[in-house]
What does this fold into?
Amino acid sequence: MLNQPRHMAWVFPGFSVGGAQVRFASLANRFGDRLRHTVISLNGDLACAEKLTPGHSVEFLTPPHRRGNTLAAILQARHVLRAQKPDLVVTSNWGSIEWAAGAKLAGLPHVHTEDGFGPEERARQLPRRVWMRRIILRRSRVILPSRTLHELARTVWGLPAKNLFYVANGIDLARFANPVPVPQPPGEGPVIGTIAALRPEKALFRLLRAFATLRQDRPARLVIVGDGAEKPALQQLAASLGIAGDTHFPGHTTCPEAWLARFDIFALSSDTEQMPLSLLEAMASGLPAVCTDVGDVRNMLAPENQGFVTGADEAAFADGLVRLLAAPLAAIGAANRAKAAAEFDQERMFSAYARLLGL
It folds into this structure.
């Protein structure tokens, strides 16, 4: 039929608020009635639905997860996808690899996106996963948001270069231009902040210990925005380090720009990242940042900020915080904002995805 919206099936290990999921929401909001979507959340989490503009055609499925049985998971994926009959299947990350195989078995066009790894793959690629990616994805288009991942997919996974596409994440820069900040957190001194899911790979213990070192010599405040299973342990660590009074855990936010407008420095302490949206948002907010040297982080930042990308040890991270506080924060933040405007506007991302997904 003429003018029928294109049907897209998007498969996520979980539809939590994360980089891949937020990017999907941005695409769905941007292309509106041109598409209808089936979002398949393998763990049943649908938290990122809050990012979707009401009125779009989005259906959510949470099929039983066949954990530990690869063949059963592939056959289940084929069955569900055949019933859905999408025009295109888009899978996300290792956790949906069986669904990539299921799409192939169902004879459906397929694109895979890979945004990074969990802690189990931060040091080295697991051989079984390498071989499964090599076999299942060799004839699919694979979209990667970082040059580090692009090179790894070519050289380690052995995927054909012609099927690999680097597409930088993009954000709505206007959203971060003039936000109304949240109230000042209690305490004195500059506000060091981060926005993150409170998961092990974010290594927020590193940020807490580095902040404790900093607090020995000067007043400062730390704000960790986000929620997750690690929160009780992080709060306990803050108390044991004697910084609980200056450390604030306000929880989940749907308005990161309001928190970023309150920060003086953004901190990213992760063990593993590729192209974190939180850092792009901090740059768009005109913030300087101290970051661990992971993924594409160093090259995302303006040259003026690259000297504050540190090793993963806590002493190096603490030193980065101390040095940045003594640097011209406004000038470094302005350079980050300029780089975000020049390279990471969401319209660039939308155009690239429109080509690759046939929109």
Summary: The radius of gyration is 21 Å. Residues 70-84 form the longest helix (15 residues). The CA atoms of residues 90 and 305 lie 35 Å apart. The chain has two domains: 6-170+345-356, 174-343.
